[in-house]
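Quarterly update from the structural biology core.
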Amino acid sequence: MTLPNFIIIGVAKSGTTSLYRYLDQHPHIFMCPIKGTNYFGYEDALNWIWTDEGDPPLLRHFQVKTLAAYEALFSGVSNEIAVGEVSPQYFRCPNAARRIHECIPNVKLVASLRNPADRAFSGFFMRTRRGEPVKSFHEELTPQSSHVKEGFYFRRLKRYYEIFPRDQIKIYIFEEFKANPARVIVDLFDYLGVDTDFVPDTSIKYNSAGIPKSRLLNRLFYNWFLIRAAKSVLPERLQEIAKQTRQLNIKSTPKLPSELRAELIKLYREDILELEDLLDRDLSIWLNGA
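Predicted structure, tokenized:
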């Protein structure tokens, strides 16, 4: 039985897709063919009772529901040193840390954390890009919204530190990853115990933020049933072409208004300070609104 020896647990909208793609290039790393199995969070999503954590996750994002199905995803492992998966829902599902530990106690965990105000703003535009009904960002990004609630990292990360040894948890800051992805990837290669001389192509930024030029086309591109049908009949090469075509309908997002940023940072300030203590790391880059 082969299971992952490392898992990227989040955070959503913090570069997890790029990490997945860059790691997948390394010849000594096997990446789960499905990004976002979210297996260890499925029971939470199915029986969601944590209203203070945000809205219930959509069950369609939990593609793997049994251990047997999860194990089967790693049947292609041969002589790779590092075996991993990326599932951002593990960060917000309250029992995911415990379930991971019960199944794979020695697994290495990785998280990329982003300025929570920017992460909330990006999450809002992700819904827009998917064609979901949304209001203005001033109306959507309130203390009660799920996007905002998901930016309180301290208690979510604390769950992992309460169960796993510190040397099994690696934390990256998204803003540093964005500024120098190659340096972060080399450090991650070292953490995973694979050849650090391998140079992946980090020039492409995956799943970047944007808003649709045409909402009609966008609704078609992000129609869940069409996506599922395409995945079942199209070869992977054509699926990539379809994704690239979808990106042509995307234009850049506006910047987060300074006054809204200040309000959100004020809301997150105490949580950020607690996170600094937990990580023993300076996060003034967020508090200063960088």
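The domain at 6-210+252-287 is CATH 3.40.50.300 (Rossmann fold).
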